[in-house]
Design a protein that fits this description.
Elements lengths: L2 H16 L6 H11 L6 H12 L5 H22 L9 E2 L2 E2 L1 H5 L1 H22 L4 H15 L5 H7 L7 H23 L8 H21 L2 H4 L5 H4 L5 H23 L7 H15 L3 H6 L1
Antiparallel strand pairs: 1-2
Helix pairs in contact: 1-2, 1-4, 1-6, 2-6, 3-4, 3-9, 3-14, 4-6, 4-7, 4-9, 7-9, 8-9, 9-10, 10-13, 13-14
Length: 289
């Protein structure tokens, strides 16, 4: 079974557990709706790619970490789309959870997915407890305070925003969690992998800015023009379209240079470049048109 199939199977197990049994039917439906069908699964795939580059000595640990990360990412999307934040009506090409199920259930769905992520880690890693503490700490640190995605969202509520801390927390932290968790699952020192994740996260933030300006909602599966609508800084506004693309390419090159020594470094570099450039493929031609 390839990595993507293993991930989807593990996500199915986690969702079935969270949405099964005596779970209220509409909550169960909303939880499943928030996770399936998935988007590109970029974050968990990165976690698994790093684990593979480190020889993936314990696939059960790497897949559990990747699954937890994706559940937390899905939770963040559900909450981010709520009217109190972005008020986005579309996510992954279909109505966002609050549009399909209402705001109260959307809030509870995000909460349930956060709990499900850590429950899944605990259950999957019970037989390998030496990985449990490290992976739980890495994953938790990438989503909570003081510098995880919760903190990133909270910067939008501050009267004055620290842009570096904001983008590092909102986007970079979870990517750093992916690279660190993939390494830790294979008994590599995770701290050495944090700079790679942060660089990828910054590149993806720039790519997201470019897509917000020049993307097609039908292709990217979510509304465009959100940064302008919410008066948020955008790399295209700051650097121009060409400057943002140059910045994006530079960040990808930096990320590749930051891959720590590992058995699969070359193949990991190829995968990072391919996935990253796929995000902005065709947008230059669209902008020119």
């Amino acid at each position: 079974m390839d990595a993507s199939a293993r991930l989807e199977q593990d996500l199915e197990a986690a969702v079935s557990r969270s949405a099964g049994g005596d779970c209220p039917p509409r909550l169960a439906e909303a939880i499943r709706y928030a996770v399936f069908p998935g988007g590109a699964r970029v974050r968990p795939r990165l976690c698994l790619a790093v684990a593979k580059a480190c020889d993936d000595t314990n696939p059960a640990a790497s897949v559990a970490a990747a699954t937890a990360i994706e559940l937390l990412h899905c939770a963040s999307l559900v909450h981010d789309d709520l009217p109190c934040f972005d008020g986005a009506d579309i996510r992954r090409g279909k109505p966002s959870v609050h549009k399909a199920f209402g705001e109260p259930l959307a809030l509870l769905t995000g909460d349930a997915l956060i709990v499900a992520a850590f429950e899944h880690l605990a259950l999957r890693l019970a037989v390998i407890p030496d990985r449990l503490a490290a992976l739980t700490r890495i994953v938790a640190g990438s989503v909570g305070g003081p510098s995880g995605i919760v903190a990133g969202q909270a910067w939008e509520c501050e009267p004055a925003m620290d842009m570096i801390q904001y983008q590092r927390a909102k986007t970079g932290a979870l990517f750093a969690g992916c690279t660190m968790a993939g390494a830790a699952a294979s008994s590599f020192e995770p701290t050495a992998w944090q700079p790679l994740g942060l660089a990828i996260g910054e590149a993806f933030q720039v790519a997201d800015d470019i897509r917000d300006v020049a993307g097609d909602m039908a292709v990217i599966g979510k509304p465009t023009g959100q940064d302008a609508a919410h008066d948020r800084p955008n790399a295209v506004d700051l650097l121009g379209f060409d400057g943002a693309m140059i910045r994006f390419e530079g960040l990808i090159a930096t990320a590749v240079s930051l891959i720590p020594d590992c058995p699969g470094a070359d193949s990991l570099a190829v995968q990072i470049v391919a996935v990253s450039r796929g995000l902005v493929s065709g947008l230059g031609a669209r902008q020119a048109a």
